[in-house]
Write a structure and sequence with these properties.
The chain is mostly beta strands. The chain has one domain: Sandwich (Jelly Rolls), CATH 2.60.120. Helices cover 14% and strands 38% of the residues. The protein has helices spanning 10-26, 54-61; strands spanning 2-6, 43-48, 69-76, 82-86, 93-98, 105-111, 127-134, 140-144, 148-152, 157-164, 167-168, 171-172, 178-180. The strands form 3 sheets. Strands 2-3-10-5-8-1-13 form a 7-stranded antiparallel sheet, with helices on one face. The chain has a 4-stranded antiparallel sheet with strand order 4-9-6-7, with no helix packed on it. The longest helix is centred in the N-terminal third of the chain and has 17 residues, at 10-26. The radius of gyration is 16 Å and the shape is globular. It starts with a strand and ends with a strand. 29% of the residues are buried.
C-alpha cells in the first residue's frame, strides 16, 4: 500500500524532482502526455525518460534503486475534490514524491471479488476500505499502484512524481529502505 521511506542524498534528489515538476507545470505542452484515460480532463501524466535525468538516476543507482522511468502526475481539483477508486494501468510500485503542498487523503481498498482484479476503475460496492493515509509535501513514499486506491480532497492542482521501479516475480520489489512505516 504505502510506506514512508528515507533516501540518501534526499536534498539533491528533491531539488531535481522539484525542478522536473516545475518544468512540466510551466511547459506541459512540450512534454508527451502518458495518460490515456477517461479522466484526462482531471488527470494528466507525463513521461520523463530516465536518460533525460542522468544525475537523478545516478543518485538513485548509488543506493541500489534502479528506476525504469519517471512519471509526473497532475490531478486538477474540482468541487468534489475526489479522484475515483482505480488501479494504475502501467505503473506497479514506485517511490512517490509529492511536489505540491495540498494534503489530500489517499485510501487503499481490497476488491470484493477476484473477478474484479483486472479492472481500471471501481465503484464503492466493489471494494472494501483497508487504509487511509495523508501524503505530505516533500516526503518519499513507497507506493503500490496496483492496489486499488483513490484520492479525496483535491481542491487545487496536485502534482507528484513517481520513480517507477520494475516488477519482479509477480510483485514489485524494492531495496530495503530506512523506513518510517506508518
Amino acid at each position: 500500500m504505502i510506506e514512508e521511506v528515507e533516501l540518501e542524498n534526499s536534498v539533491k534528489i528533491k531539488e531535481i524532482l522539484n525542478q522536473i515538476c516545475r518544468d512540466i507545470i510551466d511547459n506541459s505542452n512540450k512534454f508527451k502526455s502518458a495518460s490515456k484515460s477517461q479522466q484526462d480532463d482531471v488527470y494528466k501524466s507525463y513521461d520523463v525518460p530516465k536518460d533525460s535525468q542522468p544525475r537523478l538516476t545516478e543518485l538513485l543507482n548509488n543506493q541500489s534503486i534502479f528506476p525504469l522511468s519517471y512519471l509526473v502526475a497532475v490531478i486538477k481539483g474540482d468541487d468534489s475534490g475526489d479522484f475515483p477508486p482505480h488501479r494504475d494501468y502501467w505503473r506497479h510500485e514506485s517511490i512517490l514524491y509529492l511536489h505540491t503542498s495540498q494534503v489530500c487523503q489517499t485510501n487503499w481498498y481490497e476488491t470484493n471479488s477476484t473477478t474484479l482484479l483486472n479492472r481500471l476503475y471501481y465503484t464503492f460496492d466493489q471494494i472494501t476500505l483497508k487504509k487511509s493515509y495523508y501524503l505530505e509535501q516533500g516526503k518519499f513514499y513507497k507506493f503500490d499502484h496496483q492496489q486499488v486506491h483513490d484520492v479525496k480532497g483535491v481542491k487545487d492542482t496536485r502534482v507528484s512524481i513517481s520513480i517507477n521501479l520494475s516488477k519482479v516475480s509477480g510483485y514489485p520489489k524494492l531495496p530495503n529502505f530506512a523506513s518510517n512505516q506508518k
